[in-house]
């Protein structure tokens, strides 16, 4: 009789383990479906089928969150994320009041459609293998975005992509990932991920070559500044791949210099001179009134925020810094074309003040600080113990998001970059939950395996 009791307990434990694994498989598939659907958001311009499919995936995600995600509400980061969503909704109400339900819902969908990724990541990404796979998916999607830009230099603009622009007489095309600045904002994250994450040397070489080519053809000052930051962080953060990655970077740099210097035709040299002039030259002739990279960075820290906050004060008065002005303050970043007279400040932190005031900015800063702290905590090292380079990559990417937010906008709602922020925030929630007994599904699995 006494021997039958332990056997029964073992069978119950094994059955529970199988149920947990099935649940994790289901929510992981849902997470991946939502991730890829969000990054294919330009398909909304092709067919309404995309919108129907996205609505279905979002609904299924909400069901999984209600079923498996409530337990994570005890974490500090999750509570701040709830505050972030609640305060930002006050900005949404201002938009609905000022522009009507149709325009308001459009802006809400643009801002909130990435929100379920945070709890889904906390539930689904229960090990570092899944986390590494998601980072590689992000790098691959960014490479597809670069290819979609390069293709348009041959075929011309794609009608359902974002409108093309021009800088220094050179065409700037939108991509399958979104508007002109979007690809520039995420390239530094992809470059850092490609340098840090484990992959074969030949694949790493090809990926880095594509990404650096993307930095060049994007003609984005933010991408160049962000990529420089990514390279500095890569040199400062320990990783097992450092020597290989440095060798690949050196080979790519020497190859580019050799091609430019040995080119028999003046086309390559002229293109290089034009490009450098577009970014760094103080001469304004032939540059369409554009400013240099140095001036642009200063403008993004001074003039543009001042103008945006001035527009907020004009629209809302003295209370504007507390209440914000709604999603319309970011112009076409969240609103339909022509619906708003305002423009983005090119600063993520100022953007939050424009939407819902200083309270939303405080919530975002607390989320950033809390996630960075958890990623490098003892619990974080425990979560990433099987693949420490994934933990270093996650921490570095979050730090890049925090710093590039000073000169880039849309990092928390433009899907390709916002999905990275949401996933890292979700991982922070999961890591924090390791400190609460019974909340970590990985711990439950380990317990069941020990009984077996």
- SS element count, helices: 20
In what order do the strands lie side by side in the largest sheet?
Answer: 1-2
N-to-C CA distance: 19 Å
What value does the Rg take, in angstroms? 23 Å
Overall residue-averaged pLDDT value: 83
- The structural class is mainly alpha
Q: Please provide the ordered H/E string of secondary-structure elements.
A: HHHHHHEEHHHHHHHHHHHHHH
Share in β-strands: under 5%
Principal-axis shape: globular
Largest sheet: 2 strands, antiparallel
Helical content stands at: over 70%
The number of distinct β-strands equals 2
Unreliable residue stretches = 1-5, 8-17, 282-289, 436-452
Question: Describe it for me?
Answer:
The protein is mainly alpha-helical and 452 residues long. It has one domain. Helix content is 71%, strand content 1%. The protein has a two-stranded antiparallel sheet with strand order 1-2. A hairpin with a 2-residue loop joins strand 1 and strand 2. Helix 1 runs antiparallel to helix 5 and helix 3 runs antiparallel to helix 4. The longest helix has 36 residues. The radius of gyration is 23 Å and the shape is globular. The two termini are 19 Å apart. The N terminus and C terminus are likely disordered.
Q: What's the SSE blueprint?
A:
Elements: H1 4-39, H2 48-68, H3 76-99, H4 101-112, H5 117-124, H6 128-155, E1 165-167, E2 170-172, H7 180-196, H8 201-218, H9 221-236, H10 242-262, H11 266-280, H12 293-301, H13 303-316, H14 320-323, H15 348-356, H16 358-375, H17 378-383, H18 388-404, H19 415-433, H20 441-451
Helix pairs in contact: 1-2, 1-5, 1-20, 2-5, 3-4, 3-16, 5-19, 6-7, 6-8, 7-8, 7-9, 7-18, 8-10, 9-18, 15-16, 16-18, 16-19
């Amino acid at each position: 009789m006494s021997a039958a009791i332990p056997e029964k307990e073992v069978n119950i434990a094994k059955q529970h383990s199988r149920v947990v694994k099935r649940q994790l498989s289901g929510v992981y598939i849902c997470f991946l479906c939502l991730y890829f659907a969000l990054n294919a958001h330009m398909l909304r311009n092709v067919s309404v089928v995309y919108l129907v499919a996205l609505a279905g995936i979002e609904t299924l995600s909400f069901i999984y969150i209600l079923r498996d995600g409530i337990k994570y509400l005890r974490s500090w980061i999750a509570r701040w994320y709830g505050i972030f969503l609640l305060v930002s909704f006050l900005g949404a109400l201002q938009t609905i009041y000022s522009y009507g339900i149709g325009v308001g819902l459009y802006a809400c969908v643009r801002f909130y459609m990435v929100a379920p990724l945070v709890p889904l990541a906390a539930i689904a990404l229960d090990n570092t293998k899944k986390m590494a796979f998601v980072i590689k998916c992000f790098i691959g999607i960014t490479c597809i975005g670069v290819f979609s830009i390069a293709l348009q230099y041959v075929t011309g603009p794609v009608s359902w992509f974002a409108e093309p622009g021009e800088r220094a007489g050179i065409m700037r095309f939108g991509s399958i990932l979104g508007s002109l600045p979007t690809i520039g904002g995420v390239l530094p994250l992809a470059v850092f991920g490609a340098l840090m994450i484990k992959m074969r040397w030949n694949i790493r070489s090809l990926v880095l070559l594509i990404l650096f080519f993307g930095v060049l053809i994007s003609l984005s000052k933010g991408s160049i500044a962000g990529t420089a930051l990514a390279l500095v962080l890569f040199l400062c953060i320990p990783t097992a791949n450092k020597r290989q990655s440095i060798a690949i970077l050196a080979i790519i740099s020497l190859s580019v210099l050799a091609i430019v210097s040995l080119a028999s035709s003046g086309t390559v040299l002229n293109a290089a001179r034009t490009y450098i002039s577009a970014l760094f030259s103080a001469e304004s002739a032939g540059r369409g009134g554009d400013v240099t990279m140095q001036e642009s960075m200063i403008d993004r820290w001074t003039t543009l925020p001042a103008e945006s906050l001035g527009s907020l004060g004009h629209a809302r008065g003295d209370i504007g810094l507390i209440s914000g002005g709604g999603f319309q303050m970011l112009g076409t970043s969240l609103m339909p074309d022509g619906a708003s007279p305002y423009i983005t400040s090119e600063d993520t932190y100022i953007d939050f003040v424009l939407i819902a005031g200083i309270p939303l900015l405080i919530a975002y800063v607390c989320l950033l600080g809390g996630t960075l702290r958890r990623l490098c905590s003892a619990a974080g090292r425990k979560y990433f113990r099987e693949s420490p380079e994934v933990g270093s990559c996650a921490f570095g990417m979050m730090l890049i998001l925090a710093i590039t937010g000073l000169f880039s906008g849309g990092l928390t709602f433009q899907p390709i970059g916002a999905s990275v922020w949401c996933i890292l925030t979700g991982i922070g929630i999961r890591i924090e939950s390791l400190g609460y007994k019974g909340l970590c599904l990985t711990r439950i699995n380990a317990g069941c395996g020990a009984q077996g």
